[in-house]
Write a structure and sequence with these properties.
Length: 442
């Protein structure tokens, strides 16, 4: 606490919140990396992913670069490793061959960096410059580490061997949810200009005027997707785009990732354990092309990113956009399946308290939802604090995903939060829901 601040001031409360978020996040990182031995930490479990030990040291290096060196103006802890942990300079497939820090050294490095961060946090002034206003730089680092924690969780899903992660099952359905919800025509506020820890691609707030449309009240379920498979959906080119069909053939897609035939049904491998596919759970581990093909088969389409956000945030009673579907308060256990509290999506109807005012369910948590939109900046976008977070990914190569998954932390998930990936990716915890234009009588 600085000498000019009294206990209970806004600055002190912000420091306490930052410290708590840093510690909570680091505990998750430790749990994901302590769950396996050193051999597993340094092994590459898929060419799509880094060795876990790379992610471990990378989050420490980013914390050093932004907080210790930039915000704190301190001397480097390990300037010799910056290139090793630069995600743009080191492709994932090549990272196992790098002279990475061994596990013990990586953990020691993280502890040293964190000690310096806590030391500088005690004296920081949160009004000095935009990077530290409202604690933004610290929030950015919390979100960055939590995003890598979700990436490490996806690596655990790809890992072969005995199970090492465990969690209780998600809650059972508490409401009957199905069909479509009509979203009336009209404007709404998309994005944010006021959320202090929102990232650059979520800004600025702007008005979007949409025609009326219908959107699924819940994500597409395993049962619905099994009907697509049973109807020959993977064998019928007319449901697929030209690029999608080409990828389906080249990748030999025939079902969601981690599914296999089990007698007359299907089984799904979850973090080393096989279980029967449950029909009322949202389908997960499908790529954008698969989602697009299903939607065409169902006579619908994927929602645009704006349609998804209006369904998630717009309150018809007040006309304003909420931070989350249920309101502005942070997610609780009753609202959404977030934060690795469970290790797979909850069945549809499990979170009625998290529904939007229009009655759209499970928009946050469970599965990242593919939209039809390419990743671009909002009107008036300004890169901050560096172009490599968002701007270099803008264009037609990436599709936007919204809403977060069961592996997404609450700090990296809100109604404006945007994720993006290549349309072929399905090792991520990705699902979808469908939409369609509203007819005159709907």
């Amino acid at each position: 606490m600085t000498t000019t601040e009294r206990p209970g001031t806004d600055a002190e409360r912000l420091r306490d919140r930052i410290a708590a978020e840093l510690e909570r996040t680091r505990a998750r990182t430790a749990a994901l990396t302590d769950a396996v031995d050193d051999d597993d930490l340094v092994r590459q479990h898929s060419t799509l992913m880094s060795p876990l030990v790379w992610d471990l040291a990378h989050v420490g290096n980013q914390e050093e670069l932004w907080l210790v060196r930039d915000v704190g103006g301190r001397e480097p802890v390990r300037h010799d490793i910056d290139d090793l942990y630069d995600a743009f300079k080191q492709p994932r497939k090549d990272r196992p061959a790098l002279p990475l820090l061994p596990p013990a050294e990586a953990r020691a490095y993280l502890r040293t960096v964190r000690d310096k961060v806590f030391d500088l946090l005690d004296g920081i002034r949160f009004t000095e410059r935009p990077l530290v206003a409202d604690g933004f730089a610290f929030g950015m680092i919390v979100q960055h580490e939590q995003q890598h924690d979700e990436t490490m969780l996806a690596t655990h899903q790809l890992r072969a061997g005995a199970p090492v992660l465990d969690a209780p099952p998600p809650p059972e359905p508490r409401a009957r949810v199905g069909g479509e919800v009509r979203v009336p025509a009209g404007p709404f506020t998309m994005g944010t200009s006021t959320d202090p820890w929102a990232l650059d691609n979520e800004r600025p707030a702007h008005t979007v005027d949409l025609p009326a449309y219908l959107i699924d009240a819940a994500p597409v379920t395993n049962g619905q997707y099994r009907a697509f498979i049973a109807d020959g959906g993977y064998d019928e080119p007319r449901w697929w785009s030209e690029a999608g069909w080409r990828h389906r053939i080249e990748a030999e897609l025939s079902a969601p990732m981690h599914w296999r035939r089990d007698g007359d049904g299907w089984a799904y491998r979850r973090f080393g354990r096989w279980s029967a596919v449950r029909d009322d759970e949202p389908v997960v581990h499908v790529c954008w092309y698969e989602a697009q093909a299903y939607a065409a088969w169902a006579g619908k389409r994927l929602p645009t990113e704006a349609e998804w956000e209006k369904a998630a945030r717009w309150d018809p009673a007040s006309g304003r956009s909420r931070r989350y579907p249920w309101g502005d308060e942070d997610p609780g256990a009753e609202h959404a399946n977030l934060g690795q509290r469970h290790l797979w999506p909850a069945p549809v109807g499990a979170y009625p308290a998290g529904a939007s005012p229009l009655g759209v369910h499970q928009l946050v948590g469970d599965v990242w939802e593919w939209t039809s939109s390419p990743f671009r900046g909002h009107p008036g976008f300004t890169a901050f604090p560096y172009r490599e977070y968002s701007e270099v990914f803008f264009g037609d190569d990436h599709r936007v995903l919204r809403g977060g998954s069961f592996g997404t932390d609450r700090s990296a998930c809100r109604g404006t939060f945007r994720n993006w990936d290549y349309p072929i990716r399905r090792q991520i915890f990705s699902g979808f829901r469908c939409a369609r234009d509203a007819g005159p009588e709907e």
